[in-house]
Design a protein that fits this description.
Layout lengths: L7 H4 L1 H32 L11 H33 L6 H23 L24 H31 L7 H16 L1 H15 L8 H29 L1 H5 L6 H14 L16 H35 L17 H24 L1 H7 L3 H31 L6 H27 L23 H31 L28 H27 L11 H21 L1
The chain binds heme-as and copper (II) ion.
């Protein structure tokens, strides 16, 4: 639906400013985090080493935090703000409140960033080389945990801001269906509120007091489980904004309409209820978690594939509709009629294509038995560079080429450089992530500065380790080149002058609209209630067992696998009984 003939900055100048600031914060993180990525690849492969191996982990933490949290979340609060204001056709309720949460996010990032940077300076007694997964037993300086807390509170208040807009709109428009983009934002916000409780408890109850010296120890398995409670769902906090763009912007730039609004609502409801009760699939190899709980997480994860498979169908169907409107025909011939010269389209389509591959590596990760093969190897790193590093990051970069003119009133500096940028990203990621997956299958570990283990030779089935390493190095370098091109386009666009020749703000119309969607889909209280119930079912017993065995503050349970312990226990009872019978 094209809401008006005006650009976003003409409609909502104050909100456009907030979005610009959110994007700039995001791009600064992308620039620094991306550069560190290149340094890491070159370090591991031992081509160029700018820090010593002990500091590799400080670098890796900064890379992970800046890209996974700062780049992605600052960008998403920008587009969610755009989605709410555009689709409800009203400004935010109180801009001071909005600047307040943005400020908290900035302060939080700076605090966490300073704590990590402290690790590079020997004379400063501060470091946070705990990686972006920050669970015990590794410990960071309190500033790191405080910074993360403030950042998360900022995101919560952002969510409150979008809810306030929706509530105000509801009052003015009683009985009307909530527009799809706003629906996507509020469902995502709801599961983020629920999911982020895990890290909130982990930091405030355990990690922060522990780093302040108030406790001597914590239960490492408990903090790990609380981290993954949030840590899995957060991947959908990153992905939902990209999905939103595939649903509401991709059909528009393809020249068509969204295939189905009701199906899109179903997808977002499924993510709301299923994103959180799955976190234990990151802990298949944790001996302290019983196999049965892992099995429940696996089943939930397999159900969670459904909304992505529905998305694949809807998004491709919408693209096909667009292509046919543009004169495309044939079973596959319509693909040629798509606007491949437009970086906004091509970036999103390539991001989607890579996500199809990422979905397969995700399914492999999710299988309990096959996970034992890939866990903690470079395979997992390959997986998440396709998901968050491409499906999400490439979509964000591609849509920037659409958003920048909307929020600045300036024409995009160069479409062709933008096109080259998205193509180079795709190419670089193909090299890097493919080789990472293959090395992972050979057992090459992740998260180490010295993967070569002296005296140990990894044997490849096809090709050689040298060739795989070269692919990673070439891929990483291409990604860095692509990043530079992206920044050049952004900066040059900002340096340009205002133009009248910018298309109107808006998003795709639908072939099947909200009137076809059952009303129950909009019953957020019901879905939120089910989401909470599923989380209780999936987490109550595992958490009770971890605390029961290891204590709230540790030292943690025995390291033997749960089922072995149960067997030993049962065996002991059998022996005792037999002894009793005999004597
Ligand atoms: Fe994952 C590990 C399972 C999705 C991110 N994942 C990670 C880690 C990260 C991450 C960061 O079960 C590492 C964490 C760490 O540091 O340890 N993941 C899954 C599963 C999915 C999945 C089942 N992951 C994501 C997304 C992420 C992400 C999304 C970020 C945004 N992942 C796991 C598991 C692990 C894991 C285990 C633990 C591994 C271990 O042992 O440590 C699913 O959600 C994937 C479903 C996706 C699909 C694909 C649908 C295809 C679509 C494309 C449509 C095509 C278009 C283009 C639009 C079924 C929607 C068409 C174009 C044309 C030209 C026609
Ligand atoms: Cu996960």
């Amino acid at each position: 639906m094209s809401v008006t003939d005006a650009t976003y900055i003409d409609q909502f100048p104050a909100e456009a400013k907030i979005i610009r600031m959110a994007f700039f914060s995001s791009f600064i993180a992308l620039a620094v985090g991306g550069a560190l990525g290149l340094l890491q690849v070159l370090h591991r492969i031992d081509i160029v080493r700018v820090v010593d191996s002990a500091q590799y982990y400080d670098m890796l933490t900064l890379h992970g935090v800046l890209l996974a949290f700062t780049f992605s979340i600052f960008f998403l609060v920008g587009i969610f703000t755009w989605a709410v204001t555009t689709s409800l056709d009203r400004g935010l309720e109180n801009l001071r409140f909005t600047w307040g949460w943005y400020g908290l996010m900035v302060v939080g990032t700076l605090m966490a960033g300073i704590a990590i940077l402290g690790g590079f300076v020997d004379s400063i007694d501060m470091s946070a080389a705990v990686l972006f997964t920050f669970y015990a037993p590794m410990q960071a300086h309190p500033l790191f945990y405080l910074g993360l807390t403030i950042f998360v509170v900022g995101t919560w208040l952002a969510g409150v801001d979008w809810f306030r807009s929706w509530w105000a709109w509801k009052k003015d428009n009683p009985g009307e269906r909530i527009p799809l983009p706003a629906f996507m934002v509020v469902t995502t916000t709801l599961f983020w509120f629920l999911a982020s409780l895990g890290v909130a408890v982990s930091i405030l109850a355990f990690l922060l007091p522990w780093s302040l010296g108030l406790f001597d120890q914590v239960n490492a398995l408990l903090t790990r489980t609380l981290f993954w409670f949030t840590g899995h769902a957060i991947v959908y906090f990153w992905l939902m904004p990209a999905y939103m763009m595939w649903y509401i912007l991709l059909p528009k730039v393809s020249g068509g309409k969204l295939f189905s609004d009701p199906l899109a609502r179903v997808v977002f409801v499924l993510f709301l209820i299923l994103s959180t009760p799955t976190g234990i699939h990151h802990q298949y190899l944790d001996p302290g978690v019983a196999e049965g709980f892992k099995f429940i997480a696996m089943v939930n994860t397999m159900f969670l594939l459904l909304p992505s498979l529905l998305t694949a169908f809807t998004v491709v169907a919408s693209m096909e509709h667009g292509a046919r409107q543009r004169g495309g025909s044939g079973y596959f011939g319509w693909l040629r009629a798509l606007p491949w010269r437009d970086p906004v389209f091509t970036g999103m389509a390539l991001a989607g294509l890579m996500f199809a591959a990422a979905g397969f590596s995700g399914m492999i990760n999710a299988g309990m038995n096959i996970n034992y093969l890939v866990h903690n190897t470079w395979w997992v790193v390959g997986h998440f560079h396709l998901t968050v590093g491409t499906a999400v990051a490439l979509t964000f970069m591609a849509v920037t080429y659409w958003f920048l003119p909307q929020i600045t009133g300036k024409k995009l500096w160069s479409k062709s450089v933008g096109l080259a940028q998205v193509l180079v990203w795709f190419l670089g990621m193909t090299f890097m992530s493919n080789a990472m997956h293959r090395q992972g299958l050979l057992g090459v570990p992740r998260r180490t500065a010295e993967p070569q283990y002296s005296g140990f030779e990894f044997e490849t089935v096809v090709g050689s380790m040298g060739e795989l390493n070269a692919q990673v190095a070439i891929g990483g370098t291409l990604l860095f080149v692509s990043l530079l091109l992206f920044l050049v386009v952004v900066v040059m666009t900002l340096l340009g002058s205002r133009s009248d020749d910018i298309p109107a703000n808006g998003y795709a119309d639908t072939l099947s609209g909200p009137e076809d969607a059952p009303l129950v889909l909009d019953n957020l209280k019901l879905w939120a209630g089910i989401a909470v119930l599923l989380v209780v079912l999936a987490y109550f017993l595992p958490l009770a067992s971890i605390i029961g065995r290891g204590g709230v503050l540790g030292p943690g349970g025995s390291p033997s696998p749960q089922f072995v312990e149960t067997l030993v226990f049962t065996g002991q009872i059998a022996i005792d009984t037999a002894t009793e019978v005999i004597t």
